[in-house]
Write a structure and sequence with these properties.
single chain, Arp2/3 complex 21 kDa subunit ARPC3, 5-stranded mixed β-sheet, two-stranded antiparallel sheet, 12 helices, 63% helix, rod-shaped
């Protein structure tokens, strides 16, 4: 039985040049299908599923290796070649040492399944010698730019092939014919690595640019929605101050200073993607409530139920529109007014629930539906609520929820992850 190098196995047949080309093209197709399937459907997924994505990547590359070894290119009646080096290098360089070890074990086990001979030992020795070099170069590969990555992948491919050639020659001797075949294989494998690394880098660039464009578009939308909330709040606050100017000018002056400090801390149009702490958000709400309490007096009461252990950043102006709606459309539509309660509590499912509750007039089911479907009404009701809900949906994928009963009151709430990841839109 003829022995193999890292990629040579005994077979029977009478191949032709056309068959060789077809066999290599078939291997190319296997690798391209699996690699680009991963890039298209999994590579751009959220970081929260990172480990699962790496497992999928490793499995797909292992399948590519098995397919390449199962459908080799027949060179002679006792020699066949495959380009398993491509998925092995891609997996190790892009996914890390765990994937590299997994793919190496896959190669050894499948080679063992194909038969036990000197070629199996050559395969094992080639991996033992080459993989430390590849793993050592992985960090430099990830830190490099596109050109540097391609160059490094080519060097590692040539190193792997030459190590296999050298070990194969030592174990079973060398002949001119075998040497020429191996040199041809080095050229084919290197070309394959260059093609797939270049395509992989190009696809990564396209996906990255596409994600940046999506992020920029969502940032712009969030900025627009937030810019609508700020003037709306400013308009209502100035109206409240104006009502005090004649009868209580000193209080109006004090509240104007409060508003100035509020605007200084809350308006940041240059950095719409920034987040704020719960403490800062509550300070802004208290400034707003000082203005409203000065206007409505004893008709307005405020309660706070805030979990001191909660430590999470939130989008600015997340609670103020809810408080404003509760006062204007819930409490102040009744003669006696009422109480607005602000609650921030950590829930069992690793989210923080933000809720604003009032015991005002409440809403009917039809009124609740109108809030989400009517663009803008004459009173401006629901503008802040709708815009805030859209912001939360862009950032976290969920909207504001409303529970309300006519004559009893309304609860408006939303949830934010305890440790939110980098939002999609900023």
């Amino acid at each position: 039985m003829a022995e193999e190098n890292t990629y040579l196995l005994e077979v029977e047949g009478d191949p032709t040049s056309m068959n060789i080309v077809k066999d290599f093209l078939l291997q190319f197709a296997f690798i391209a299908t699996l690699v680009f399937t991963f890039q298209t459907f999994f590579a751009a997924k959220s970081e929260r599923n990172r480990q699962h994505i790496k497992v999928i990547q490793a499995v797909l590359l292992a399948v590519a290796i098995v397919l390449c070894m199962s459908f080799p290119a027949y060179i002679t009646d006792n020699i066949r070649l495959d380009i398993r080096i491509v998925p092995l290098l891609l997996g190790t360089l892009y996914a890390g040492w765990r994937t590299g070890v997994f793919l190496s074990v896959t190669i050894i086990l499948y080679r063992l399944y194909l038969g036990t001979d000197l070629g199996l030992f050559t395969t094992i020795l080639t991996l033992v010698v080459s993989m430390p070099v590849i793993l050592f170069s992985q960090k430099s590969f990830l830190l490099g730019k596109k050109k540097r990555r391609i160059q490094l992948a080519l060097l590692l491919s040539i190193t792997y092939c030459l190590v296999g050639l050298a070990l194969g020659s030592i174990i079973r001797g060398v002949s001119i014919k075998i040497l020429l075949i191996n040199l041809i294989y080095v050229c084919i494998a290197t070309l394959a690595v260059w093609i797939f690394t270049s395509l992989n880098e190009t696809i990564k660039e396209i996906l990255s640019k596409n994600q940046q464009l999506q992020t920029a578009a969502k940032d712009a939308e969030i900025s627009f929605l937030r810019s609508q909330i700020n003037p709306h709040f400013l308009y209502n606050s100035l109206n409240s101050i104006a009502a005090l100017c004649t009868d209580e000018p000193q209080k109006a002056e004090s509240l104007t200073l409060d508003l100035a400090q509020y605007l200084k801390n809350s308006f940041n149009f240059k950095h719409m993607d920034t987040f704020t702490t719960i403490e800062s958000e509550l300070e802004l709400i208290k400034a707003y409530l000082n203005i409203e309490k000065a206007r409505f007096g004893t008709r307005l009461d405020v309660e706070y139920d805030v979990d001191a252990q909660v430590d999470v950043c939130i989008p600015p102006l997340s609670l103020q529109p809810l408080v404003e709606n509760a006062i204007k459309h819930g409490l102040m539509t009744t003669l006696q007014g009422g109480t607005v309660k602000i609650s921030i509590k950590k829930e069992a499912d690793d989210v923080v629930r933000f809720a604003v509750t009032d015991n005002g007039s409440g809403m009917s089911t039809s009124t609740q539906e109108q809030i989400w479907h009517v663009e803008v009404d004459k009173q401006g009701a629901g503008i802040g609520l709708r815009n805030l809900s859209q912001r939360l949906e862009l950032l976290y994928g969920q909207r504001i929820r409303i529970e309300s009963t006519e004559g009893i009151g309304t609860k408006v709430f939303f949830d934010i992850p305890v440790q939110p990841l980098k939002p999609i839109g900023g």
